[in-house]
Amino acid sequence: MMMVMRCNGCRREVRYWAADLLKVLDFFHEAHVPPWPCSRCRTIEFMTMRWLLPSAADLQAGIIVRRPVRQVTKWVWQNEKT
């Protein structure tokens, strides 16, 4: 199963495999709630989620799907007065 996340503000659409989202998100995250805001508009207000069962013809034609590669941990810095 594939999950399609669409921003109705800028019309950006991204496809994810549902199994990949299970690895990244909390197990109890609701499927109809977008997990993060649009990377282009930086807002979650216009985001929608829907599921999709791609046909064999769609898969053969080549659908672009975002896949997780690795988790990156960043340091957060703050300025302190000495």
Mind sketching the topology for me?
Blueprint: E1 2-7, E2 13-17, H1 18-24, E3 47-52, H2 56-61
Brief description of this entry?
The protein is of the alpha+beta class.
Which radius of gyration do the C-alpha atoms yield?
A: 16 Å
**Mass-distribution shape:** elongated
Distance between the termini: 54 Å
How is the main sheet built? 3 strands, antiparallel
- Number of helical elements: 2
Mean pLDDT: 92
Approximately how much beta-strand content do the residues carry? 15-25%
Domain tally: 1
Order of helices and strands: EEHEH
Low-pLDDT runs: none
Strand arrangement, largest sheet? 2-1-3
Structural class by helix and strand composition: alpha+beta
- The count of strands amounts to 3
Share of helix, binned: 10-25%
Question: Could you please describe the fold and organization of this structure?
Answer:
With 82 residues, this protein is of the alpha+beta class. It has one domain. It has 2 helices and 3 strands; from the N terminus they run ββαβα. It has a 3-stranded antiparallel beta sheet with strand order 2-1-3. β1 and β2 form a beta hairpin. The radius of gyration is 16 Å and the shape is elongated.
